[in-house]
Design a protein that fits this description.
alpha/beta, Rossmann fold, 2 domains, about 15% strand
Length: about 400
């Protein structure tokens, strides 16, 4: 594959510290193998400073990383970017980072976004500025600020001019936090999870667990670092979360005579806080494999449900009455998209839980599954290759 000689650098814009997971998800190895130089521009210090107190990996690619510490750094370093660079932004436009995108546009740099991690909740996650405005009418001192934010929010969608947008799934095409312009190239790609799915299939990796099992897709709900970093209340009661979960798992294991394995969230720290699952086996960074070879999948709203859809697995979505309203809404949205009835694990079951589980399984249809894949993972006509390779092919054909 011959490289487009006019393009030399790929620059990734990020707003959280680079992790091993990011390097894989961004497809950096594919770009390096093709002959590009890859650089990381890290804006954590000015856009997500609280994340600096949490690092779940060693420092990576330090010699290729530019740390942007303040707006002066931003202006200086963005102005240094050459015209033969391609900028892949994992930062999306908002009022906070407006200066960044103003300079990218003002310097006529080639930049764009990758939208390939969309989940149903993403479609509902836009701030409800109108409701917010109404709720503040009783506080006149805030009205000016809220009105200003509303105007800025509405305008931010239209003011920037990305050269390209890579998107995975029909829903991503129809929904942007901003609007593409007439010169924006829209490139169909595959989701992050589909890239991982291809990896496992190509390697023909053997199963991690030899015996039959059911897998639970952990989300580290009580202790997720995003909540700790941003001082947000957890989406559950940490005292009861694991009690209800383990009680439910006991019922499932008894009814199906099969053990439950925990596919740990990649940012979980069970070695540090202890096994919260009554001694059940916890495995991290093997979620794709665990889903592929499982009997069925239990989950709340994990993005890894994509693997369950790709492998055609039965899915048991669960929630508890004491989860936050926000978290229950997220679970409801995922359930609706998959057309699966969620099960409440905090209620007392007078009848055999097996009956309710089987009712959920009988609602499974291949059409529903295929629709979820088309909406959120990949469209049928998208090449069955990794997103980085799709973009490299795009560049090879000099389409930018």
């Amino acid at each position: 594959m011959k490289k487009n000689q006019s393009l030399k650098n790929i620059i990734f814009l990020i707003e959280t510290p680079l992790s091993e997971r990011d390097i894989i998800r961004f497809g950096i190895k594919a770009y390096l193998d093709y002959g590009f130089e890859c650089f990381i521009y890290d804006f954590t210090s000015i856009y997500n400073r609280s994340y600096l107190s949490y690092k779940n990996s060693d420092d990576l690619m330090l010699d290729k990383t530019v740390i942007i510490s303040n707006e002066i750094d931003l202006i200086k370093n963005i102005n240094k970017i050459s015209k033969n660079s391609i900028i892949i932004s994992h930062i999306f436009p908002n009022n906070k980072n407006r200066t960044l995108f103003d300079i990218l546009d003002g310097n006529s740099l080639v930049y764009g976004y990758v939208i390939n991690g969309l989940i149903p909740f993403s479609l509902k996650s836009e701030p409800k500025y109108l409701n917010y405005l109404i709720s503040t009418l009783k506080k006149p001192q805030k009205i000016f600020k809220v009105t200003k934010n509303l105007v800025l929010y509405k305008s931010i969608k239209y003011m920037h001019n990305p050269s390209f947008i890579m998107y995975a799934g029909l829903k991503a095409k129809d929904y942007y936090r901003f609007k593409p312009t007439l010169h924006t190239k829209l490139i169909k790609c595959n989701s992050f999870d589909y890239d991982n799915y291809l990896d496992l299939e190509e390697k023909n990796e053997s199963r991690v667990i030899s015996e039959d099992y059911i897998v639970f897709l952990d989300e580290y709900v009580p202790y997720h670092p995003d909540n700790l970093i941003n001082n947000i209340q957890p989406n559950c009661n940490p005292e009861t979360y694991y009690i209800y979960l383990n009680n439910y798992f006991n019922k499932i294991e008894k009814e199906f005579n099969t053990s439950i394995i925990i596919a740990a969230h990649p940012r979980s720290e069970y070695k540090k806080i202890g096994n919260k699952f009554d001694g059940r086996k916890i495995i991290i960074n093997k979620t794709n494999n665990l889903v592929k070879f499982s009997k069925f999948v239990i989950a709340h709203s994990s993005t890894s449900l994509s693997y369950a859809a790709l492998y055609g697995k039965y899915i048991n979505i669960i929630y508890s009455s004491d989860y936050s309203k926000h978290f229950k809404n997220v679970i409801s949205l995922i359930s609706n998209e998959l057309k699966i009835n969620p099960i409440e694990i905090s209620k007392f079951y007078k009848t055999n839980i097996n009956t309710e589980i089987k009712d959920v399984f009988f609602s499974f249809t291949k059409n529903n599954n295929d629709q979820y894949i088309s909406n959120y993972i990949r469209e049928n006509e998208t090449p069955k290759i990794k997103t980085a390779n799709i973009f490299i092919n795009f560049l090879k054909n000099n389409e930018i």
